[in-house]
């Protein structure tokens, strides 16, 4: 039996993610520094309400529509999803609550996460982490059925979808965008890292 868990630590605007795997035979802790696009963790991100100066076009970063649909058009329909991990994670208090949020108060307790890479051929374009409060089991069950399908196709098909807030953070190997969504009574945090390999093609 295998399980994927992670520890999210928040201290003001600083975010740390430590990921580790649990199996019946062994327990292995992995803490990855953000040193390149192959890192599976997002460490020490300083979030801001405006995108930091970069070569990434703002019409990509601040577009409130579906990034999946935008990438499908950009890649000529070649966009694919590779799932890196799914499972429970623990979030520590201290993460700012977005305006209008009902359930994502200070992100204490257990959450369900999904980590993926969006790619076209051999080129990785986006790394993404979805975070859902564990009590939202009905939504989590639906997200588990996605498999290798993109989250965006599901998310933007939901009636009454609201994006509560967007924040941005700079990385050496890309630029991260954090979005807060509400679907009815449920809420989702989505972190998308626009990789430099995408920027080079824009």
From TrEMBL:
Kindly list the residue ranges recorded as spanning the membrane: none
Among the record's GO biological process terms, what is one? ubiquinone biosynthetic process
Highest taxon of the lineage? Bacteria
The terms under GO molecular function for this entry are: chorismate lyase activity
One GO cellular component term of this record is: cytosol
- By its UniProt entry, which SUPFAM superfamilies does this protein fall under? Chorismate lyase-like (SSF64288)
Q: Which keywords accompany this UniProt record?
A: Cytoplasm, Lyase, Ubiquinone biosynthesis
- Say if the entry is tagged with keyword Cytoplasm: yes
Q: What is this protein called?
A: Chorismate lyase
Provenance organism: Natronospirillum operosum
């Amino acid at each position: 039996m295998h399980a994927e868990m992670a520890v999210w630590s928040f201290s003001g605007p600083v975010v740390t993610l430590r990921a580790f795997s649990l199996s019946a035979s062994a327990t292995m802790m992995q803490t990855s520094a953000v040193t390149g696009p192959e890192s599976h963790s997002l460490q020490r991100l300083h979030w801001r309400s405006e995108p930091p100066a970069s070569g990434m076009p703002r019409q990509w970063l601040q577009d409130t529509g579906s990034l999946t649909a935008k990438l499908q058009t950009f890649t000529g329909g070649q966009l694919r999803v590779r799932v890196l991990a799914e499972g429970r994670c623990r979030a520590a208090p201290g993460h700012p609550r977005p305006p209008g949020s009902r359930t994502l108060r200070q992100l204490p307790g257990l959450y369900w996460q999904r980590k993926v890479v969006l790619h076209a051929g051999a080129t990785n374009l986006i790394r993404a982490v979805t975070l859902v409060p564990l009590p939202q089991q009905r939504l989590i069950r639906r997200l588990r059925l996605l498999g290798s399908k993109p989250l965006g196709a599901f998310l933007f098909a939901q009636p009454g979808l609201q994006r509560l807030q967007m924040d941005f953070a700079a990385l050496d190997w890309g630029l991260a965008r954090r979005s807060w969504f509400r679907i009815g009574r449920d809420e989702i945090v989505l972190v998308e890292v626009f990789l430099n390999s995408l920027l080079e093609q824009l």
